[in-house]
Amino acid sequence: MTLYPQVDSEGARKIAQDILSERRFKPSPVPRPFQGLLRQLGDWLRPVGEALRRAFDEVAGWLPGGRASLWTILGAIVVVGAGLFAARLGKRRARVISRSSTLLAGSGSQDPASLERAADDAERSGDLELVIRLRFKAGLLRLGHARLIEFRDSITSREVSGKLHSPTFDRLAHDFDEVVYGRRAPRTDDVEIAKTSWARVLTEAGSR
Amino acid sequence: MNRWRWAALAVAAVIFLNILVAVLDSFYGAPSGPPSSSYATTPEGIAAFATLLERTGHEVTQLRDELTRAQLDPSATVVILDPQGPSPSEQATLRTFIERGGNVVAGGAAPDWIAGIAENVPTWSPDGERDVHGPSAYDGVQQVRTAGGGSWIGSGAGEPTLGDPARPLAVELHIGDGSAQLLADTSPLQNRLLDQADNAALGLALVGPPGQDVTFVESQHGYTRGSGLGALPTRWKWFCAGLLLAVTVWLWAKSRRLGPPEEPNRQLPPARTVYVEALAATLARTERRRRGTK
């Protein structure tokens, strides 16, 4: 067996202890509440990282230009993928905007029946806020046609409430204001109430 | 707020805290560096070992070039511990260096690459003793403390130099005019254990007599001589790439060019939430609220 140079073990240990007492080897005083969790996460992910690195080196070995070429190809794939994803996202948003605009176009109409048909379409496409808006306007128009109110586009819920004294209308108006102006998320029971309560409003208002 | 937003907020908070800790660490000079790097002051680094060698008369250098481009002096010792994985051409360079008389101290977890510098290397096992006692080929080294991170199964074509000959911690392989000291577990040389038992003496014995030049291969720990963008650490490059991707996607998503050229109908005015809240705040401040409401 080869002889190795004898070292002073005690002396070497003391030098090492002196070196390790330096500030640069001391842990930071900054608290690290997530260090243990993140280190464990890193340990779990290390085999994945190693496998990816080996695969990367393997593929880079086949390409002229090695790692630089592979990085360029991967970068191009990422940019193209991001572009395709964003284009798809944009098309989907454009379809939503177009659909909402088409449905809203119906809201310029003064015919309650066409407004209610537009509301049914909006309900099928899942736009609950639009349903509540269209049914509210349709309801006001029906009240106007029944001469229970003098309908105009600028009429306020307060004016109508003062005219009708209908608790059912007050509830409908309250829900409408909460959703349209207060930005509360519309619920399916709001839509159900909007569908079924206007007949009762007409009855309550007509009976006065 | 729905649960996805809460989850996103939680992730953002963790990221922000980590960035804050990293910034504070840069002011306090916290230990940093990859495992078994002679620059690293973390518990798994070997900066203390490099300093120990300097204080005991060794000329220490850090190699930041690829091994294939390095001019290795065969009278020196090359230390390559827990490397990222030398390429076949780098392994060939190391082998040539040893054959010409050089001394290599190599090792780490799962060192498959060692088979590229020598034939019939021993098989590595992840199980190791935490207290390694003789027999020892190193005078003055009787007991070595480890983290229990590995051992060799037998000694292959070499000789066991430390520990049970059936499961040694260190093996020496003679190749040409030189030798390779193979460590199954590098933890005795790391900062966390260097001052324990005879670990420091082991490190000195591995590299050779005082005055021996010692070169640490830091290019295998991510330290290179790159300039410009090439000088950025790999982690920074990943971070910048991810940031660029996020910004690109955000720009495309926000761009109006991806929507219809013109809406066919007028958009309804937005909900007047802000107006209503402002009015409510004004009314709340007045003394005559009933009159104001009317």
List the helices and strands and how they pair.
The complex is a heterodimer of chains A (208) and B (294).
Chain A (H helix, E strand, L loop, with lengths): L8 H12 L14 H28 L3 H40 L6 H14 L2 H18 L11 H8 L2 H14 L7 H9 L1 H9 L2
Helix pairs in contact in A: 2-3, 4-5, 5-7, 5-8, 7-9
Chain B lengths: L2 H26 L18 H9 L3 E5 L13 E5 L6 H12 L3 E5 L15 E3 L5 E3 L9 E3 L5 E3 L5 E4 L7 E6 L2 E6 L15 H9 L5 E5 L16 H21 L18 H13 L3 H5 L1
Parallel strand pairs in B: 1-11, 2-3, 2-11, 3-10
Antiparallel strand pairs in B: 4-7, 5-6, 8-9, 9-10
Overall description:
The complex is a heterodimer of chains A (208) and B (294). Chain A is 73% helix and 0% strand. Chain A is mainly alpha-helical and 208 residues long. In chain A, helix 5 packs antiparallel against helix 7. The longest helix of chain A has 40 residues. Chain A starts with 8 loop residues before the first helix and ends with a helix. The model of chain A has no long low-confidence stretch (mean pLDDT 84). Chain B has 7 helices and 11 strands. Chain B is α/β, with parallel strands linked by helices and 294 residues long. The chains are: A mainly alpha (208), B alpha/beta (294). Chains A and B meet through helix 1, helix 2 and helix 3 of A and helix 1, helix 2, helix 4 and helix 5 of B.
